[in-house]
Amino acid sequence: MTKTRTPVSRRYPMFYVWSYGMGAESTAGLLRMLTDPAARPDTIAPDFSNLIIVIAQTGDEWSTTGRLVQHYILPLLRRHHVRLVEVARSGPRRADGVAVLQDTRQPYRLHLDGVYKLSRENRVTGTMPQLGGVRKCSQKAKGAPLDAWRAREFGDQPYLHAIGFNADEGARITRDAAYSMGGRRIPTYPIHEWGWTRQDCVDYLLRELGVVWPKSCCRHCPYAGNRLGWPEQRARFAALPEEAAQHVIDEYVCLALNPRSGLFGPGRSLITRLRRDQVTEPVTLAVARMKTMPWAIYRVRRLYHAPANAIRSVDRVLFAGHRTIHTELAEIGRLSGIALTRNEQIAGAPVRDGDRDIHPRLWLRRRSESTYPTLEEFYTVAPALAQDKELSTFAATWATHTDPVLARLEHRAEAAITAVHRARHVAA
Ligand code: SF4
User: At the top level of its lineage, which domain of life is listed (predicted)?
Assistant: First the structure.
């Protein structure tokens, strides 16, 4: 049965949906709309009955942003009886659906933890959000739940959709405006229409609230590492080491599995950046936490068809505590006759800020920088957070590319692992 949806009023027949990202632009826009009737778009009813503020939680936002919104914005929504909807994705797949964390005109708190955190998805795959491309992380953790909620809520009914792009974000507006959801979504960009830059929004919030409003972003956002963004992000890592430390651990695992995967690009890791800037507490905490975690010896294989085009297999071959696993990797190296290497420059990543490959590795094959297809295979150790993963076709594809030299090394490594595994049982 089709749900019948009632427009708010004859005069204001369309819902006005404000996608609230909690950053300076969307906060300034929201504040001005609520407090300055002259600036308010005439498509919003004076009693705000057709206005809906929607937030998508990635699960990894800094707690300080949430506290500011709770302190300055939620009381305003309560006073004006404005509807707030907070959503988050329920799982890694689109089919897992969207959870509504709250839907109320009297909001008192936010749910920054979301449901299925972006960092949890990355942790399972041993990856971090990536720079460049189409910001898949944002599409998955913010765009998809917001789209799904609007589609469910409005069905065929058209609605206005406001986004806080600033005066300098014409390119993003051009991209966003092309997305109409079959004509139902009518986009609008109030901040851009006012001609406000990001700095105008920050200045406005400072004047109105007496607060330097921070950028809203995930703690492990790769885009926060640029020249303008890093000072603010660095200050948050220094001020909130408890919530930052898990992302340091995640990057450690990610770098173990792929030495070219620094958070801010190849050769640009978060860990090195924090050490360089003497923000030591999150790193110290991360190291202490890692020592209490289960660790694994990972076998990592990649088949590159082109420089950034690879299929990958990750396989945890032995589990143990921190000390034991390091000893066992060294023993596997000794038994197989494959040298254990560390502190090397990172292949395929220009050395910046002193980034080096700090992870001990047994290299069976290093990839070629110039000839494709090319193989890469090594064993290394890290906390056992990443799950085993390979495509169903990987083994067959790998076998067709393996040469006798690599096959012999693989055989020696596997025999050494079996011997180490047996030795455990004898010792027990
Ligand atoms: S804040 Fe950064 S990491 Fe988080 S979803 Fe957006 S682009 Fe991705």
Answer: Bacteria
Q: How many angstroms is it from 65 CA to the middle of ligand 1?
A: 14
Query: Among 169, 198, 218, which residue terminates a domain?
Result: 218
Which of 57, 123, 135, 226 gets mutated to test ligand 1 (max ligand atoms within 8 A of its CB)? 135
Asked if residue 249 and residue 339 are part of one domain, the reply reads: no
Domain match, 204 and 351 both? no
Residue 315's pLDDT is 97
**Beta strands, E only, 36-158:** 51-56, 83-89, 98-104
Query: What residue owns the CA closest to ligand 1's atom 6?
Result: 138
Would you list the DSSP string of 209-276? HS--PPPP-BTT-GGGGSTTTHHHHHHHHHH-HHHHHHHHHHHHHHHHH-TT--TTSTT--HHHHHHH
Q: What is the pLDDT of residues 30-63, one digit of tens each?
A: 999 999 999 999 999 999 999 999 999 999 999 9
> Region 58-77: what's the mean pLDDT?
98
What pLDDT does residue 308 have?
83
The amino acid present at 167, given as its one-letter code, is: A
The total domain count for the chain is 3
pTM score above 0.90: yes
Q: Is 337 left (phi over 0), alpha (psi -120 to 50) or beta?
A: left
Answer whether residue 360 is part of any domain: yes
Average pLDDT, the chain: 94
Ligand 1, pocket-test mutation among 221, 236, 250, 251, most atoms within 8 A of CB: 221
CB of 229 closer than 6 angstroms to any ligand 1 atom = no
* pLDDT for residue 350 is more than 80: no
Strands (E) across 28-158 are located at 51-56, 83-89, 98-104
| Residue 359 structural domain | 295-427
Whether residues 33 and 177 fall in one domain: yes
CA 121 – ligand 1 centroid, Å: 13
Amino acid at 376: E
Q: Which two tokens stand for residue 387?
A: 């799950």
Domain containing residue 31: CATH number? 3.40.50
